């Protein structure tokens, strides 16, 4: 199937767009750059490809405008710390027991 002649491209100049608020323009430019473009050559219909390209452009812009989830700092629980230290201690003992005894300790 030859779809190269029906390829459609959608481009938005974010830096020059007056329809976007300043905060949105800054966030999109920081994540995607000043010019955002998408293309589609999925179908043989150019009008369908144009609609797909516009839908992809809208999806990219909405993903760029999503505010990232803030990380909530967490601490390991006391029991997790105790388990980790016990494991380290057991590994240390296991390695000490593998050593060849000192000449006077046999």
List keywords for this structure.
single chain; 106 residues; mainly alpha; Double Stranded RNA Binding Domain; two-stranded antiparallel sheet; 3 helices; 2 strands; 49% helix
Structure in a nutshell:
This protein has 106 residues and is mainly alpha-helical. It is built from three helices and two strands; from the N terminus they run βαβαα.
Description:
With 106 residues, the chain is mainly α. The chain contains 3 helices and 2 strands, in the order E-H-E-H-H. Strands 1-2 form a two-stranded antiparallel ribbon. The longest helix has 21 residues, at 78-98. 7% of the residues are buried. The model has no long low-confidence stretch (mean pLDDT 90).
Write the layout of secondary structure elements.
Layout: E1 8-13, H1 22-32, E2 35-40, H2 46-65, H3 78-98
Q: In sequence order, what are the helices and strands, one letter per element?
A: EHEHH
Strand content: 5-15%
Helix content: 40-55%
* CATH fold title of the domain at 4-65: Double Stranded RNA Binding Domain
Largest sheet: 2 strands, antiparallel
Q: Radius of gyration, rounded? A: 30 Å
Count of runs of 4 or more consecutive helical residues: 3
Structural class: mainly alpha
Q: Quick one: how many beta strands?
A: 2
Based on the structure given, which CATH architecture of the domain at 4-65 is correct?
Answer: 2-Layer Sandwich
Mean pLDDT: 90
Distance between the termini: 82 Å
- CATH class value of the domain at 4-65: Alpha Beta
**What's the shape?**
elongated
